[in-house]
Design goal:
With about 240 residues, the protein is of the alpha/beta class. It has a single domain, classed as Carbamate kinase (3-Layer(aba) Sandwich), CATH 3.40.1160.10. It is about 40% helix and about 20% strand. It contains 8 helices and 11 strands. The strands form 2 sheets. Strands 4-3-5-2-1-6-10-11-9 form a 9-stranded mixed beta sheet, with helices on both faces. The protein has a two-stranded antiparallel ribbon with strand order 7-8. α1 crosses α3 and α5 packs parallel to α7. The chain is globular.
């Protein structure tokens, strides 16, 4: 395997599958099965998942709610998804731990970096919930931060698009796909991959990002083997 320890970033919206809202159990099972493939191959897996299928802090602000209040609601939405994912991982036969940036003793451990690393070393899948625990930071920022903290080799950003394009491939038929691109080129071209805070964290800490299509079974295994799937962003 090319990558020994990875941080998988999933969007909350991806859990909806074909639904308009909430969680599609079939999509959840598919993700758990893909994660099991790489876990069984000896890869240490940490996961951060968004909450956009349930609630977004930005929605709250649009409705006149205080942004801070809305962001905390969004963090709770990520915990619902994290618990659902943890249940799917356990059903697929993996041992897992859920760590929360906001203390929730009944359902999750608090985030402790050394403990998270120990879980990974023991072959447990670690799910990080509640973002960074702070408002005004996205789950992309949480993914970048946690990946750096646990010394992950790479961030794998699972999306419904098979990589990074010069324009939105769903809108522009002439959009071209990049197999590899530098952080500086992403800045220069104004490509939207992650929010700028998350992206800058990765650039400054020399942490590569691979954007790939997670909805195609088998892709995750190909990525950790080092096959050319998706787009890699590096210094």
């Amino acid at each position: 395997m090319k990558y020994k320890r990875i941080l998988l970033k999933l969007s909350g919206e991806s859990l909806m599958g074909d639904k308009a809202f909430g969680i599609d159990n079939n999509r959840l099972k598919s993700y758990a099965q893909q994660i099991k493939e790489i876990h069984d191959a000896g890869v240490e897996v940490a996961i951060v998942i968004g909450g956009g299928n349930i609630f977004r802090g930005v929605q709250a602000e649009e409705g006149g709610m205080d942004r801070t209040h809305g962001d905390y609601m969004g963090m709770l939405a990520t915990m619902i998804n994290s618990m659902a994912l943890q249940a799917a991982l356990e059903s697929a036969g993996m041992h897992s731990r859920l760590q929360s940036a906001i203390e929730m003793k009944a359902i999750a451990e608090p985030f402790i970096r050394r403990k998270a690393v120990r879980h990974l070393e023991k072959g447990r899948v670690v799910v990080f919930g509640a973002g960074t625990g702070n408002p005004y930071f996205t789950t992309d920022s949480a993914a970048s931060l946690r990946a750096i903290e646990i010394n992950a080799d790479v961030i794998l950003k699972g999306t419904r698009v098979d990589g990074i394009y010069s324009a939105d491939p769903e809108k522009d038929p002439n959009a071209t796909k990049y197999d590899m691109i530098s952080f500086d080129d992403v800045y220069a071209k104004g490509l939207n991959i992650m929010d700028m805070t998350a992206f800058t964290l990765c650039k400054e800490n020399n942490l590569p990002i691979i954007v790939f299509d997670m909805d195609t079974p088998g892709n995750l295994l190909k990525v950790v083997k080092g096959e050319q799937v998706g787009t890699i962003v590096r210094n």
